[in-house]
Design brief:
single chain, 318 residues, alpha/beta, seven-stranded parallel sheet
Length: 318
């Protein structure tokens, strides 16, 4: 199998010759201003790590660019949200940059582009405290804003897949920590906008992955996402579900994970031999059907990319 064949088979839950590997880092902020530098960083990371497929970063384009959010205090102002439009630099910039990265990969591997859930784009602009303040002030106003964002995100998704040439999206779901919303609140206020984007993406590609983002020690309320139409789930093994087979059974699709991404954990401190042993352990648990080796979330800058390559090389021996 070549890389594309291997990853497509893994996404479909079919047996592979060896378990594919994909881990990723964010692009350093000092490279965001110049697209050529950004693109070179992404392509060099692929070359150095030799991962089986790429998760392309959305760095520089995180916060939602609606002027309504500038200094917002009253949730009712969220009713003023309007579409930013398909020609907005926030959308066009991502499509054009991604198109160049895809060209640089030359069809060698599957490439997924990072897309955040609508609530995350809003939160990345105003922060968690303000997000929670506004949504509790007026949930209906927030639902309106999220529906507007979702429609613009669909435009972005279409451009990323059909124009830029990405194989699919890496859809990052956040904000479902067990201490943030009740299940009923999340399902009423947040779920509609998330499902809208994911369902649309699935009409454009079968190679979409859903990332159930988690950090620190607070687990997610996974039940709020369980009925989402997910083809592949990137989950936080060290925060949410430790056992790989349990994760496969819970989500009912291919799962992607295995290593703790947080600083000073095993991946950062282990020797090459220890990493090889852990990869063998992960493959023994996950098998060669419906499993992809990855990490709970983004790898931190201090990890030498050589260590990611050790994981890749170890998987190819099994």
């Amino acid at each position: 199998m070549n890389k594309r064949e291997r990853v497509i088979a893994a996404f479909k839950g079919e047996e592979v010759d060896h378990v594919p590997v994909c881990m990723w880092k964010h692009v350093p902020e000092e490279l965001w201003a110049n697209d050529d530098d950004f693109i070179a960083c992404q392509l060099n990371s692929y070359k150095v790590t030799d991962v089986d497929f790429m998760k392309l970063s959305g760095d520089k384009y995180f916060g939602w660019p609606d002027p309504v959010l500038e200094g917002i205090e009253n949730a009712d102002d969220l009713f003023k949200f309007k579409s930013i439009g398909a020609d907005h630099p926030w959308i066009r910039g991502q499509i054009e940059r991604t198109k160049k990265i895809i060209k640089g990969l030359n069809g060698e591997c599957v490439a997924l582009y990072l897309i955040f859930a609508p609530l995350s784009y809003l939160r990345l602009q105003i922060g968690y405290p303000k997000m929670m303040e506004l949504i509790r002030q007026n949930p209906e106003a927030m639902k309106h804003a999220l529906s507007v964002i979702a429609e613009d995100v669909k435009v972005l998704v279409k451009g990323i897949i059909e124009e830029a040439g990405a194989d699919g999206i890496f859809f990052s779901l956040q904000n479902a920590e067990v201490d943030r919303f009740t299940e009923e609140e999340y399902r009423e206020w947040v779920t509609p906008s998330e499902k809208s984007v994911l369902e649309y993406a699935n009409t454009l590609s079968e190679l979409n992955a859903t990332h159930l983002c988690a950090w620190e020690e607070t687990p997610n309320r996974l039940s709020v996402w369980k009925d989402y139409p997910m083809n592949v789930v990137s989950w936080a093994r060290y925060i949410d579900i430790k056992d790989i087979q349990e994760a496969k059974d819970y989500f009912g699709c291919t799962v992607w994970g295995g290593f703790d991404n947080r600083s000073n954990t095993f991946l950062y401190t282990a020797t090459k031999e220890e990493i090889e042993a852990e990869v063998a352990n992960l493959v023994a648990q996950g098998g060669k059907k419906g499993y992809i080796i990855g990490s709970d979330c983004s790898i931190h800058d201090e990890l030498p990319e050589e260590k990611i390559r050790w994981v890749v090389e170890a998987a190819r021996k099994i």
